[in-house]
Amino acid sequence: MLQILLLLILSLSLLFLINSTIRWKSINIIIVFLCTCVIIYFITFPKQCINSTLFGAKIFFTALFPSLFPFLIVCNLLIRYDGIEIYSKLFGRILCKPLRLSVQCSIALIISALCGYPLGAKYTCDLYEKSLISKDECQRLLNIASNTGPIFIVGSVATVMLGNTQFGYIMLFSNYIACIIMSFLIKPASTYVNIWGKNNFSAYLPSKRNFGSELKESIDNALKTVISVGGYVVLFAVLIDILSYNKYFDIALLYITKNTNTKDILKSTLLGIIELTKGCQLISTLNISLYYKSIIISFLSCFSGLSIISQVYSFTYKFPELSMKKYIKRKAVQGIISSIVTALLLLPFEKLSTSTFTAINVNSSFNWVYIILFVLLLIPLCIHSLKKLFHIS
Shortest CA distance to 78 belongs to which of 119, 131, 133? Predict the structure, then answer.
């Protein structure tokens, strides 16, 4: 049965490539056919699909919803009460000038650094929708304000999956460094939207605000966003399990490599490219050193995966002038940079086992995340000082 389905998919793909005149019809046929295959799979293996759905729902309700929902409400209230103007005045020059961004981008950078995907993209699009940043700057900010949240990478991945919190801080630091490096690789916008002077940001907001109505609208917006994110998580949890437990997927991997260990690494990485959380979980169980696990996870967490890219697209689709192709290509480069930084930072511990590294005396009462955030705050200032010293434009 599955062989026939695969043959039909291949035939339709060839038809799509050969006859460009029916391109969009072919896309429709392929999508409808794939959806039909998934429905047949649901009917054939209902227990597995239910378990996959429950797994996705568990991740959403235990990890994402508790952290995202209240945070979104507070952020929405913050924006409604001139938060962008206040944050821009306080942190705009420190954060944005070294990264070659306009000062109003500071709120998207801060929210992304603290909470991670996909809130950086959401508030970047909010800034663009309010005409506070230009199209070019929005496209650029999508990749700079784009990182894994500290709770996910340090808590869920490093502490729970890998059993080593210290490696989590290093991977988080690598994520931040990759974002900073991307700000220098991507050409800055030629023009900025000036929100100071005649067009003050307060003009975009109502002069009289009722706290009750503002809170209600903030909750409605947060609920809509978080339910959308939850839908993507559950859907991709099911799709990734369909691939993960499909023997034909394993057979295809055997054509690439016969080595079992290499095949497992490749499989986990490919599944991680589709859905980040499941990929990190699979990589944590591989029979390789913690050093190599961290490098792969660092790439995946910075690339983010198709599930999170779809969540980002749910915010950008309203603006067809923003290119998702550019975003995805840059995320791939960002992932490579993050993995290289992780590899270099963890090089002294390459030959150490997990137990040996964990046994190193680290004061547990001292929160290393403050050091990371402090260093990240200093890096843009140092770069800005060096640019002035050497007169770099």
Answer: 119
User: Helix 23-44 crosses helix 46-59 at what angle (to 10 degrees)?
Assistant: 100
User: 199 vs 188, 194, 203, 208, 286, CA distance in Å?
Assistant: 23, 7, 7, 18, 56
- Assess whether the previous peptide bond of 118 is cis (omega < 30° from 0): yes
d(CA 308, CA 275) in angstroms, rounded, equals 8
Q: If you write DSSP's letter for every residue of 309-365 in order, what string do you get?
A: HHHHHHHHTT-TTS-HHHHHHHHHHHHHHHHHHHHHHTGGGTT--HHHHHTS---TT
Please give the Cα distance from 385 to 365 (Å, whole number). Answer: 34
More reliable by pLDDT, 112 or 381:
112
Residue with tokens 């009460």: 81
Q: Where are the domains of the chain?
A: 45-389
Dihedral sign of CA atoms 263, 265, 266, 271 in order? positive
**CB contact at 8 A, 119 and 111:** yes
Whole-model pTM: value is 0.72
Token digits for 347?
């090089």
**Hunting for tokens 């896309």 — which residue is that?**
27
pLDDT of 282 reads 84
Distances (CA, A) of 388 to 3, 182, 381: 63, 20, 11
